[in-house]
Amino acid sequence: MAANGQRKEGIDGPTNPMVTPLLTDLYQFTMAYAYWKAAKHNDRAVFDLYFRRNPFGGEYTVFAGLEECIKLIANFRFSEDEIAFIKETLPTSCEDGFYDYLRSLDCSDVEIHAISEGFVVSPKIPLLRVEGPVAVAQLLETPLVNLINYASLVATNAARHRFVAGKSKLLLEFGLRRAHGPDGGIGASKYCYMGGFDATSNVAAGKLFGIPLRGTHSHAFVSSFMSPDEITEKSLHSSDGSHVCEDFVGSAQAWLSKLKVTSIQRSNLLGGIFAETNQSELAAFASYALAFPNNFLALVDTYDVMRSGIPNFCAIALALHDLGYKAVGIRLDSGDLAYLSCEARNFFKTIEKEFGVPDFGKMNITASNDLNEETLDALNKQGHEVDAFGIGTHLVTCYAQPALGVVFKLVEINNQPRIKLSEDVSKVSIPCKKRSYRLYGKEGYPLVDLMTGENETPPKYYKFPLSFHPIQLMLHKVDVYGSLYCLNGCKLPDLAAYFGLQAGERILCRHPFNESKRAYVVPQHVEELMKCYWPGRSGKVREELPPLKVIRERCIKHLEQMRPDHMRRLNPTPYKVSVSAKLYDFIHFLWLNEAPVGELQ
Amino acid sequence: MAANGQRKEGIDGPTNPMVTPLLTDLYQFTMAYAYWKAAKHNDRAVFDLYFRRNPFGGEYTVFAGLEECIKLIANFRFSEDEIAFIKETLPTSCEDGFYDYLRSLDCSDVEIHAISEGFVVSPKIPLLRVEGPVAVAQLLETPLVNLINYASLVATNAARHRFVAGKSKLLLEFGLRRAHGPDGGIGASKYCYMGGFDATSNVAAGKLFGIPLRGTHSHAFVSSFMSPDEITEKSLHSSDGSHVCEDFVGSAQAWLSKLKVTSIQRSNLLGGIFAETNQSELAAFASYALAFPNNFLALVDTYDVMRSGIPNFCAIALALHDLGYKAVGIRLDSGDLAYLSCEARNFFKTIEKEFGVPDFGKMNITASNDLNEETLDALNKQGHEVDAFGIGTHLVTCYAQPALGVVFKLVEINNQPRIKLSEDVSKVSIPCKKRSYRLYGKEGYPLVDLMTGENETPPKYYKFPLSFHPIQLMLHKVDVYGSLYCLNGCKLPDLAAYFGLQAGERILCRHPFNESKRAYVVPQHVEELMKCYWPGRSGKVREELPPLKVIRERCIKHLEQMRPDHMRRLNPTPYKVSVSAKLYDFIHFLWLNEAPVGELQ
């Protein structure tokens, strides 16, 4: 398996060794042959990779998958074995010179500009731009789209779940078993972490990407025990090693009897009073505690949460407490999670009070069982006491919308702009090699994304001449938005107004296809979105691929930076994507030029 | 990358080398440690792998993924590197002996029974039964569920698309770019083929599994051309090599002019009459035809299907025809596919008639563009002329339901039956090591699936003593359902009735959880569902893993064998899953035994 990270001499291959130049659609090879046959294979093409609509009814998408794309590009070469297979597959009439051409292929003449991984992105804006020989760029289409589509979709889904759950909750990705195949699972773990999850259950992903791992035991563990009698080694030394409890199971059973006759029972907290808890469950919990006295977290719903799981858990936790250990908590995997978590919390708090066990009331409550954005939202509305959510199926399969429509469109060839028309206006491509900018407003929020032609003057904004101007002395800090604050806390625009300076140039932002939708924007700050991630022969500096943790932090920061109304789960305010006036005119000139004209008779 | 197929000395590893024993949930390791610490790790456990509900609102599921499971099991061993990572991950308090235990682990003591891959299966019936040391069986849980969940889901989805499209249509899987990661795509290609698709666009899957490959060119190919002038090499020799057309492009342009003034135009077949077709499109088509004169299939919707794509295609196809080549057809990727395919067909037929080109009217029409069960059904209702469907997103992401809920439940340990209770009855597990049978009725359709205890007498059915009975002479054939026909075409049950024989024993089939639902069945034929795919130390014969093509044929046969009302897309008749009377009684005895009893005061 390819190791993660970078080799001394270059960039390692994709995480999944199955990602080879053959992981593409057959038509990329038939086209490559046709290009080659027409001596057109080295025509210089520019392709934009973008999506047309945000997923999940939202107004944002997290861009993910770039690192794997660059790893593919850096190692893009056909093996003899692969070439032999292509030869076998194409018609026998295809000339041998083509296979020599394939033999010589790599991405040294390809240039990749991309938005950085973890950025919040919007429809139509190129996420990645591929420039290079048209045949090579086409061969890259399918794997690039594959590597970005699911990555961005599931990272966005993770971000959405984080948004509903709130910052304070621990979010655990538990989806491996339901994911679409092995690296559906591995990808899910990587990109959910990027989108704001805290940990995964997937050990392979933990090893590959350094993601924190979480997990305790399943229902099967509980039901694999028959009774406490089968535990032969019942002794447990105390946390400080000072003494040994010879019969830990007996100690837990004693606590269970005590719980039965306390005021907890009388106060009817257990929603009906428990009589006999399930003894195989008690045995399983005891066994797990004996193995992990410092990490005791029990799944309490194998038989009956309130009548068996919780009392059994508390008996073990109290027995652990007697030995100086602190139990971690419980996991609920069925039933009414709002109700059960509140009941459990009350029970824990009552124990804290009744038996004077410090922090027993703060016991961690983890919930799982088919959670998604809706159920998290419903739990919030009902009120709950859950500290951590384990989310699987809905998260990793992107149940609410399992596909993102990333496309890869030719926008220029041999310096000639190209357009793809469609009866559906939303499917018309935006031609030309372009630049994209994010324009920020006074409040520090992104206002609009703007595409311009490659050679248009970039939008101007107020760059304060720090070193020459007298206000320099009053400067206090520069915040993440590039806004300047002075000592009295007022922002630079106010100062700029005070000094009669303008914050930025007025820029006309136009909807690419709707002539009536346009707005003037005076940006407070402008950020160019694409950077060079693979310079080819351009001589540009290659942007480094940062570690996953850095991408994750960037992603979380960018999500927090968005204006809250764009982030709403339901009916969010549309985030605007625009083109410059010049580009608008050019699109529509080209459109008229390419569309066939009918004749009425 | 692991090669596919079998090595001399055993079974190769999983197709995706990322499928290792580490591709599992962390809790499998924490449980393994707790079992080991309690000296319980070698307790003999039986786990059933099954799902609870058919996907897509249907009444059937195709079982897929078994081969990859067996490949994992056959090669299940931890590397030192993996053990080091587990040690790093578990608490430092874990004893070193556990890692020695992991070092010694393999699946030589595990026994796997499974339904054969490609079978039509139903909820609750074990698809796979794992017997072995409890700790090992648990470690297998996550990867087995992962490998079967998506495989079965997408194979079922493919079968459903085939059912709506009909047997005569060519179905092409085009989903790689939208699949959930690289082997989401590779898995999709494998299992869609298994479920009845004819080919894929995914070259890597073609190489790995020998699936037929299909594909021609994209919109980008079309828009990469500017005009016919850029084609420098315009000559094409005739199909029989007897002469050369020096200007193939000119020949196509001449045909285009001819098409403009014919009665085809006058008859207004082009839905408005075409004037100038898009010349860059004509150039692209010409170029593709020059590269693949025997395989000319053109994507006709880059600019305008009726005003440009179809006339341009026909001009090229007619020019090819002049040289003795036969064009393959067109692909439509947008717009009203029903209408456009019918218009295109009419146009082709008119050309056949007008210019006397044989079979021009039978030109292949492929359609793609976000197809799914509903759109296929709608196309059928509207009437269309499509011969082949290219299906991507909805097929491979299982858009209509992106997850199958395969679970893995402990049903026995140390010969003691175990049950998992739940407030949701559908989540209660069916305890005991079991056998499953499919009972067939008179018409040859499966009637009901039946689970019994492992040691119950198998259900009896009429096995005709062929070699001794006088009707032997009248026997004509044995059909796929095991029904016997005599020379006059009447089925054995009639004969059996005639001779006063009974077709089978009356068997009481009970719903596992609903006491009022039960039925007597007199099966015509009984098939035991699970076979031994990994004998462990049992000495049983290991069922061979057949090639993909054989599984595919089996799958198609099994799907055809189902009673049509179970296969309906909407509101299908439920297919019954039952337990024997004995097993029913036992389930309910155990249930009462395990459920905690409350006390009312």
Automatic annotation (TrEMBL), chains A, B:
- Gene Ontology terms, cellular component aspect? cytosol
Q: Which cofactor does it need?
A: Mg(2+); Mn(2+)
Q: In which pathway does it act?
A: Cofactor biosynthesis; NAD(+) biosynthesis; nicotinate D-ribonucleotide from nicotinate: step 1/1
Q: What does this protein do?
A: Catalyzes the first step in the biosynthesis of NAD from nicotinic acid, the ATP-dependent synthesis of beta-nicotinate D-ribonucleotide from nicotinate and 5-phospho-D-ribose 1-phosphate. Helps prevent cellular oxidative stress via its role in NAD biosynthesis.
Every Nicotinate phosphoribosyltransferase C-terminal domain range: 502-586
Sorted keywords for this record are: Ligase, Magnesium, Manganese, Metal-binding, Phosphoprotein, Pyridine nucleotide biosynthesis, Transferase
Give the residue spans that cross the bilayer. Answer: none
What's this protein's name?
nicotinate phosphoribosyltransferase
**Reaction(s) the record says it catalyses:** 5-phospho-alpha-D-ribose 1-diphosphate + nicotinate + ATP + H2O = nicotinate beta-D-ribonucleotide + ADP + phosphate + diphosphate
Assigned EC number: 6.3.4.21
Q: Which family does it belong to?
A: Belongs to the NAPRTase family.
Which residues does UniProt call coiled coil?
A: none
